[in-house]
Write a structure and sequence with these properties.
heterodimer; A: 669 residues; alpha/beta; MetI-like fold; D-Maltodextrin-Binding Protein, domain 2; 3 domains; 26 helices; 10 strands; 9% strand; B: 395 residues; alpha+beta; Rossmann fold; OB fold (Dihydrolipoamide Acetyltransferase, E2P); 2 domains; six-stranded mixed sheet; five-stranded antiparallel sheet; 10 helices; elongated; disordered C terminus
């Protein structure tokens, strides 16, 4: 047997290397001074510092802690009583129930998540009817008719998946417990409840604690179930991390992941030490062997039973309780209590300092969420899972939302800064009377290409479908843009409803796809691909090109000669928005010249604010002490002759949208 | 002499259709040390749990001082229990274990006649705990943790914990089962001493007949949910009611006999003088002859003649197995008779005890399988089986 020692050991070594190497790499690079996740550029805590200044991370951390603490507490109590109930059943029932208890733990998270989500949505739907009925015949209590996914559903979901873990840990302790202990306590004068607190609870405490610890780590770790039950306005830390990886994997992600790994590791170590101790104690007890404890431990235990020791124990318990309640209270206050405005926008689409400034100025907390395309936003709103006040969709989506009665008219008297919006961007086709919108940014769609990977300058959309760039082209991942560009290239209008024209556009794209021209479909993933030189050509927005340019100077941008789409993203308020007045304040704040200047500088999208547009080059010079490259300014805020070549999207009639959809599915890259 | 304290009237207990106790009628006197004795599964622990209030009989009444207490929960009964394996609270030290019952607020009538919860003053608790620890000789162990005690010490804590509440009755469920042989002997004495010192009723459950005889004022022999015999240890030993009792208590040779007349019983076609009477003429009976009541004599002088088949040295005496006409007897004798030697025996009239035939006739008293039976008595696993008697499932 011993002969195999070396081979066996090296195999074990390899296994563990395989298990832990990725994590060590992650930890290692979280201390990297540079941005790279592959090249070591010196030690730095820079990313950790950045982490603590990232409001999204801090807020979602608070949410995660709040949800984990509360759900752990509730699940621990519920699970403990459930375990006691199961334990008191006869064996015939107990064993099947314990098996049933295992199933949710083994079940795929995604199934649990989706089923909980469906359950909540169905419940809300039913509740809406009941509440309306209740409100209709009595006016004493006004029941809310509209409920959405949010912190409460998140906590309920976490409680539900945590309970089995508590039961799993408490049940064995109960089984090990001398059955006569409860009898003995009752024999000595306890009622069952007294026996529970005085005898059962101390006996199963180790199980309860380890159950709670495991539930807590499960709760902190969980992504999938949270994703489906948190709704739009609440984000846990894992969800934030996931969101952060969409654009670029910066070492901030490494840093936050490292911290999470360490937190879970610590909890697991504590738990293992506890159970090892407990196992030793049980072995002793079972053998009836008298074992002298360490005299210091013995003395300490003796002291604990003196009146003073008891006082100390009670104080410790009280302080723990106070700390728990305090933490939960603080986190609740931090995440919930202040007046709030829920905003949903695109990723990297705001100078985050503006949010802090607005909060400081108004005392209103901004719950800032992001999504990645108009279509995603639309389906979020339609599913009823979203609870936003302000959304920032693009032109065509706005008209669709208006058409479907999903937007609220704005109160322009509360938005004096609307006056500063350039007349060019008012009363646009999507909102002809300008009752619903305040423009946020505008820009063009064009080709971003890597000049080192492409011969010469690109001037036409043809390069998107050309074999010479096979495998190097990134197709934009939404049907409107992808087919719109093809329509433009073929000389048709982006707003055509002629199915033959649309089919021609589809065939152009499908043919190129069959020839292997496209590397893939991307939205915000385009940042990584283009900055890293992993693709040569992509279609995206001018503003985002300028962000990429900061990280890769070889990139170029062009609005092709065939023309393109120009767009306006505008702030709107959803129907029945719970925080309408706060939404007005937010919109007015963002529409100010100062906000527009800073946003323009941060996200490189052109502002619709006349003053900001005029002042930006001078403002830039003042800020950075150098002149703004006029070429860059022209890409950002396209001159009129470029806009003349471009068309704005108009919402398509429903049959055409369905036609688009079918073709898009057929394409299925 | 002393008054009746607890009475079970027509008590029957069934679990899942299985009758564990059948029409039990028994009373327990004040200040007596009574032992429920029987093999595992005989229902003795169930009877104890019914008295303790942990189980309610399927039918019949439990009376305490003449009052029906069937539905009184355990915590309101003036009865305390020393559990199998003690069931001490592992998270409490010795002192807190003993003080446990005293610290529970009790309902009592206040000065205004209203019922209210009363808590014993702390110094009173302290006084009584220390007093009780002294009774069980555990002074100085107050702050020791339970895990650091030996089995015997834990046993004493369990007794103190129960007695400190000044119950009228102390129930002991196999109290010595978890102790080794030597300690068991010591604790028997100790228990008896404590009982006399406290002057209360002890109801002890055991399957160890030696323990039962050594400690008890009264022994109740049970089997299959039925009381076989109630009596003093001497009665039970000398005048067993049937073959089961005779076999279970001590060693017995039980043979078939015929009562030819008062004072005359025929065994193996030979007539023996005995002291028993009151049977029908020629009634078939069971005859018990204790191994120590048989005298070995020469073959010629013997009332019966047989061949020695095995001899085991036991210290004071030899366990000698003798074959009489195909039936093997155990004889305890100080005379050494080698195997295969032919011997005769004599039995004095007071060494012969005649019993009526019962359902146990013919089941016991043959020593052809002597060694197995002897092992069974010393088999410690039987102690654990006993706890399965509760009727509920067991891991």
């Amino acid at each position: 047997m011993k002969k195999n020692g070396f081979g066996g050991r090296s195999l074990i070594g390899l296994c563990f290397l395989f298990l832990y190497l990725p994590i060590f790499l992650l930890i290692f690079f979280s201390f990297n001074a540079g941005e790279s996740s592959a090249v070591w550029q010196g030690f730095s805590l820079h990313w950790y510092g950045e982490l603590f200044h990232n409001r999204l991370v801090i807020e979602s951390l608070a949410t995660t802690l709040l949800v984990s603490l509360l759900s752990t507490a509730i699940a621990t109590v519920a699970g403990t009583f459930a375990a006691i109930g199961i334990y008191s059943l006869t064996k015939k029932w107990r064993d099947p129930i314990l098996v049933v208890n295992d199933i949710p733990m083994m079940n795929a998270d995604i199934v649990t998540g989706i089923s909980l989500c469906l359950f909540f949505v169905a419940f809300f739907h039913g509740w809406g009817g009941i509440a309306r009925w209740l409100n209709s015949w009595q006016s004493l209590i006004k029941f809310p008719t509209r409920m959405t996914l949010g912190l409460t559903t998140l906590i309920i979901a976490h409680v539900s998946f945590n309970i089995p873990y508590v039961i799993l840990n408490v049940a064995p302790r109960l089984r090990q417990m001398d059955k006569n202990l409860v009898d003995a306590a009752q024999d000595l004068g306890c009622t069952w409840m007294q026996a529970f607190f005085k005898v059962i609870l101390p006996e199963i405490k180790p199980g309860i604690v380890s159950g709670a610890l495991i539930a807590f780590t499960m709760s902190v770790d969980d992504f999938v179930i949270s994703y489906f039950t948190a709704g739009s306005a609440t984000q846990t830390l894992p969800m934030t991390i996931y969101g952060m990886t969409k654009k670029r994997v910066t070492p901030v992600v490494n840093a936050v992941s490292t911290l999470m790994f360490l937190a879970v590791l610590i909890v697991l170590i504590i738990n293992n030490i506890r159970s090892a101790k407990q196992a030793r104690l049980n072995a002793r007890r079972a053998s009836f062997e008298p074992v002298r404890e360490n005299p210091r431990v013995e003395r300490f235990k003796a002291w604990l039973t003196t009146p003073r020791g008891k006082l100390a124990r009670r104080l410790t318990a009280a302080v723990t309780c106070v700390i728990f309640i305090g933490t939960v209270g603080f986190l609740t206050a931090f995440t919930q209590s202040r007046p709030v405005v829920n905003v949903c926008s695109w990723g990297e689409y705001i100078d985050e300092d503006l949010i802090d400034e607005f909060e400081a100025e108004t005392g209103i907390r901004v719950n800032y969420q992001t999504t990645d395309s108009n279509e995603t936003l639309y389906s979020l709103l339609k599913s009823g899972g979203a609870d936003y006040d302000v959304v920032v969709p693009s032109d065509y989506m706005i008209s669709q939302l208006i058409e479907e009665g999903m937007l609220e008219e704005l109160d322009y008297s509360q938005i004096p800064n609307f006056e500063k919006i350039d007349p060019r961007f008012r009363n646009l086709p999507y909102d002809p009377e300008n009752k619903y919108t305040v423009p946020y940014t505008w820009g063009t769609v064009g080709i971003i290409y890597n000049s080192t990977m492409v011969d010469g300058d690109i001037t036409s959309w043809s390069s998107l479908y050309d074999d010479s760039n096979a495998g190097q082209v990134l197709l934009i991942n939404n049907s409107r843009d992808a087919f719109g560009i093809a329509l433009k290239y073929l000389g048709y209008s982006v707003n055509t409803t002629d199915e033959d024209e649309i089919r021609a556009a589809y065939e152009l794209v499908a043919d190129a796809n069959d020839r292997g021209v496209f590397q893939g479909k991307v939205m915000d993933e385009v940042f990584q691909a283009m900055e890293g030189g992993n693709a040569a050509i992509a279609t995206y927005y001018a503003g985002d090109y300028l962000s990429m340019l900061e990280n890769n100077e070889d990139l170029k941008f062009v609005v092709p000669e065939e023309g393109s789409n120009w767009f306006v993203d505008a702030m709107c308020v959803l129907k029945d928005a719970p925080n309408f007045d706060n939404a007005m304040k937010w919109i007015n704040f963002i529409a100010s010249t100062d906000s527009n200047l800073r946003n323009m500088d941060y996200i490189w999208y052109a502002s619709p604010n006349t003053e900001a547009l005029e002042q930006y080059p001078a403002w830039y010079e003042e800020q950075y002490g150098e002149e703004l490259d006029p070429e860059i300014y022209e890409i950002m805020a396209a001159p009129q002759e470029v806009l003349d070549r471009c068309e704005m999207y108009i919402v398509l009639p429903r049959p055409t949208r369905a036609f688009y959809n079918n073709l898009w599915i057929q394409l299925g890259i | 002499m002393s008054k009746e304290l607890i009475r079970l009237k027509d008590v029957t207990m069934t679990f899942d259709g299985e009758t564990v106790l059948k029409d039990i009628n028994i009373y327990f006197n004040d200040k007596e040390f009574l032992t429920l004795l029987g093999p595992s599964g005989c229902g003795k622990t169930t009877m104890l749990r019914i008295i303790g209030g942990f189980q309610t009989p399927t039918s019949g009444d439990v009376l305490f001082d003449g009052v029906r207490i069937n539905d009184v929960p355990p915590h309101l009964r003036q009865v305390n229990t020393v559990f199998q394996k003690y069931a001490l609270f592992p998270h409490l030290n010795v002192y807190d274990n003993v003080a446990f019952g005293l610290r529970i607020p009790r309902e009592a009538e206040g000065p205004d006649g209203k019922k209210q919860k009363v808590k014993l003053p702390r110094d009173e608790v302290d006084r009584r705990v220390r007093e009780m620890l002294e009774v069980v000789s555990l002074k100085g162990f107050e702050h020791r943790s339970i895990a650091s005690l030996s089995g015997g010490q834990q046993q004493r804590v369990a007794i103190a914990r129960a007695l400190v509440n000044r119950p009228k009755v102390l129930l002991l469920d196999e109290p010595l089962g978890a102790l080794d042989m030597r300690l068991r002997k010591d604790m028997q004495q100790e228990l008896k001493r404590i009982q006399q010192q406290m002057g209360i009723t002890f109801i002890n459950v055991t399957h160890d007949q030696e323990e039962a005889l050594a400690m008890s004022d009264t022994v109740v022999v049970m089997n299959e949910g039925v009381i076989q015999q109630i009596g003093t240890p001497e009665d039970i030993y000398n005048e067993p009611k049937n073959a089961f009792v005779a076999d279970f208590i001590g060693e017995s040779n039980i043979v078939d006999g015929i009562m030819r007349a008062d004072g005359v019983v025929e065994i193996f076609n030979r007539r023996f003088a005995c002291l028993d009477g009151g049977f029908e003429k020629d009634e078939p009976v069971d005859v018990v002859i204790r191994p120590e009541d048989v005298d070995i004599v020469s073959e010629a002088e013997g009332q019966l003649k047989g061949v020695v088949t095995s001899v085991t040295f036991k210290g004071v005496h030899y366990d000698t197995i003798v074959d009489f006409y195909g039936f093997k007897w155990l004889i305890e004798t100080t005379d050494y008779c080698p195997v295969d030697s032919r011997i005769g025996i004599k039995i004095d009239p007071d060494g012969i005890h005649v019993m009526k035939k019962s359902k146990y006739s013919g089941m016991f008293g043959d020593y052809s399988s002597y060694s197995e039976e002897y092992d069974e008595i010393n088999d410690p696993t039987l102690i654990d089986e006993e706890s399965a008697e509760g009727g509920e499932d067991e891991e």
